[in-house]
Amino acid sequence: MSPEDRAVGVAVAGVMAGAVGLAIFNPLTGGTASAETPAQAAAQHRESAVSERSGTEHAPRKAARSASRTVAASTVIKLAKSQLGEGESRNGSTKYADWYASTPHAAVTARRDGGSVGDYRGAEWCDMFVSWLSAQTGVKNMGWDAYTVQHASWFEKTHRWGDIARPGAVVFFDWQNGSRGGIDGIDHVGLVVKDNGNGTITTIEGNTDNAVKEKIRDKSEVVGYGYPDYAKSR
After folding, report:
1. Angstrom distance (rounded) from CA 28 to CA 14
2. Is 126 inside a domain boundary?
3. Which of 44, 62, 117, 216 could form a disulfide with 106 if both were Cys (CB 3.0 to 4.6 A apart)?
4. Looking at the domain assignment, is residue 33 inside a domain?
5. Closest by alpha carbon to 23, among 36, 33, 35, 11?
């Protein structure tokens, strides 16, 4: 989610002053943030009989049931590649934003950051795309958010943050300051496909020219990487 989007209320600039503290608090459980995916949290939300509901689909039941299983990075990358070319509708929304707005998390993050649940449908959606990948696959500790600064802060505070471009890592960018910048300046997020070994990485990103696209990015643009718990390759 870009600074421009924060300005319209979905993630207001005032949040940045408390970003680190908020990033490790999970309003769904009333404590510090667990490493749950959207599917896990949605299942917990239903089981707690919380009555926030919507008419569109939530994270699939299959993902909720299998959220504890170990998922390979290649599984998430494969799903991301299957979305290449997906873009915005005429009203500026996407299936990823529609999905996010339908989950209990939208109400939680809207209360945290300002704005309303409906704002997500026209908002910058790069992080909602990453959250959708997490929910669909049930990968552990990929986290969920619509605000890149909060998501990156969560990775850092849960000790899943670093500077190595591993396949399947969640990569965070700062277009102005690049690797010299900090988490509070992050503008954009995507998924690492591979390290090209020449100072660049191949990524798949939502909300790139209003679509899901594969890109070659210079590592100098990267603030850091978040690491989900993937199955160890054999």
Report:
1. 22
2. yes
3. 117
4. yes
5. 33
What angle (nearest 5°) sits at the alpha carbon of residue 86, between those of residues 81 and 89? 165
- Our count of domains for the chain comes to 1
Residue 171 vs residue 27, higher pLDDT:
171
Compute φ and ψ for 223, nearest 5 degrees.
Answer: -80, -40
Rounded Cα distance between 223 and 215, Å, is 17
Residues above pLDDT 70, as percent of the chain? 70
229 φ, ψ to 5°? -90, 95
Query: Quick one: tokens of 46?
Result: 């239903």
The count of residues in the chain is 234
Rounded-to-integer distance, Cα 115 and Cα 106, Å:
10
pLDDT digits (tens, 9 = 90+) for 142-170: 999 999 999 999 999 999 999 999 999 99
Query: Whole-angstrom Cα distance, residue 80 to residue 84?
Result: 7
> Token digits for 143?
């986290």
Residue pair 133/127 in contact by the 8 Å Cβ criterion? no
pLDDT tens across 191-221, in order?
Answer: 999 999 999 999 999 999 999 999 999 999 9
Residue 13 covered by a domain: yes
- Residues 6 or more apart whose CB falls under 8 angstroms from that of 7 comprise 13
Confirm whether 233 is domain-assigned.
no
Q: Which residue has the tokens 């799903």?
A: 79
Report the distance separating Cα 63 and Cα 190, nearest Å: 21
CATH number at residue 159: 3.90.1720.10
- Note down the domain range covering 214: 3-226
